[in-house]
Specification:
This protein is α+β, with helices and mostly antiparallel strands. The protein has 2 domains: about 200 residues, no CATH class; about 140 residues, Glucose Permease (Domain IIA). The chain is built from 9 helices and 10 strands. Strands 1, 2, 4, 5, 6, 7, 9 and 10 form an 8-stranded antiparallel beta sheet that branches. Strands 3-8 form a two-stranded antiparallel sheet. A hairpin with a 4-residue loop joins strand 5 and strand 6. Helix 1 packs parallel to helix 6. The protein is elongated, with a radius of gyration of 23 Å.
């Protein structure tokens, strides 16, 4: 494979390249400050990373000469290319949601590797981090293989799409790329968020539409990571408490018929009534349940990027979405009720990992939602 990025260049070369890149940005009219990448944290323990990621981003300067950490399966060289993408986004005053969209897109198109021409394996004349094509008007081959130029062109196109900040990542990316595989981008959203969080001190937890970091997304706001609280209200019962050790989610108190929204974009995989009377016979979900009734009542499961699964129980009536529907974060799913095993109107909300619907896959929604920038409390 012919690339311009691997193996990683020596520091003197990277300093020179970064200088060339900055000149390219200036020539394209991008103003602002270059953000500084976090120094290598490979020697830090987990506590250091947790402290860094506790915030919601910071406007530090990217230092392309720093020894960058690998992040998950992504090498230092790949993170270096992601850092260029993020820095260009900050220079162009693109909200952090856009950095995640751009990094995830480059993950799919090139695995964050600045690809040259691949001969017979090349997709037409696609080149660079985003596999942009000279024949489609993205620029000359030399320009497209400049990561700063390529990222700038990606963001310029992204900004022309009305409402991109609230779109599912795969939808926004596809509107820019016009790919033959439009649903392939979504699977990279968690990794892209991890890299952005690492480079910016938690930028994925900032507001999706805010261009300045430092403040987390507020109640009811979509986070840069693409998550939003499903309903606002106090937590009446927590995850696996001493009193309810088998409680696999949290109960959020909200008045009857309060809209419940999808916590993130995804595909509805369950939308049905789940209620059984004391004798085990089916029980109506169109009436209030009680503690003696078993089941979730009217409920929904949604599968999200990264194989995260969210569950919403006790709707007041049949959900507004059906199995197979693709929903956006913030889309109304139904309304708070008390169907199934319930002693009053509330939303029972669960988060599961690895698409595992069972109790084995359940995790604490409070911790999870805080980590993705949509704290429940």
């Amino acid at each position: 494979m012919t690339t311009l990025e691997s193996p990683r260049r020596p520091r003197w070369w990277r300093r020179w390249m970064w200088g060339v890149a900055l000149v390219s940005v200036c020539c394209l009219g991008a103003a602002g400050v270059v953000i500084q990448l976090l120094a290598d944290q490979s020697d830090d323990d987990n506590g250091g990373n947790q402290m860094m990621l506790a915030g919601c981003g910071n406007n530090v300067m990217v230092d392309p000469d720093a020894d960058l950490p690998s992040v998950g399966v992504w090498s230092e060289d790949q993170v270096y290319n992601a850092a260029i993408i993020v820095s260009v986004g900050q220079e162009l005053e693109i909200p952090a949601r856009g950095w995640i969209v751009a990094v995830a897109t480059a993950m799919q198109e090139s695995r964050l590797t600045n690809l040259g021409h691949l001969g017979d394996r090349n997709d037409h004349d696609s080149l660079g981090l985003f596999q942009q094509r000279p024949s489609s008007g993205w620029g000359t081959p030399e320009q497209i293989q400049d990561p700063v130029y390529a990222a700038t062109k990606f963001y310029e196109k992204l900004k022309t799409i009305d409402g991109w900040e609230g779109m599912a990542l795969t939808e926004a990316a596809q509107r820019v790329q016009i790919s033959a595989y439009p649903f392939a981008y979504a699977k990279h959203e968690p990794d892209a968020t991890d890299i952005v969080n690492t480079l910016t001190g938690g930028g994925g937890r900032s507001s999706a539409v805010n261009v300045s970091l430092g403040e987390c997304a507020g109640p009811g706001e979509l986070s840069a990571a693409g998550w939003i609280i499903p309903v606002q209200g106090p937590i009446w019962s927590g995850f696996r408490t001493a009193a309810r050790p088998t409680h696999q989610g949290v109960d959020i108190g909200a008045p009857r018929d309060t809209p419940v929204v999808a916590a993130s974009s995804g595909t509805v995989i369950t939308s049905e009534c789940n209620a059984f009377g004391p004798d085990g016979s089916p029980y109506s979900c169109d009436v209030d349940g009680s503690p003696s009734v078993a089941g979730c009542g009217w409920y929904i499961n949604i599968l999200h990027a990264g194989d995260y699964l969210t569950r919403y129980c006790h709707f007041s009536s049949r959900p507004l979405v059906k199995e197979g529907d693709v929903v956006r974060a913030g889309q109304i799913l139904g309304y708070v009720g008390s169907s199934g095993r319930s002693s009053g109107p509330h939303l029972h909300y669960e988060v599961h990992l690895n698409g595992d619907r069972s109790s084995e896959g359940a995790v604490d929604p409070v911790a999870f939602m805080s980590n993705v920038g949509a704290p429940l409390e």
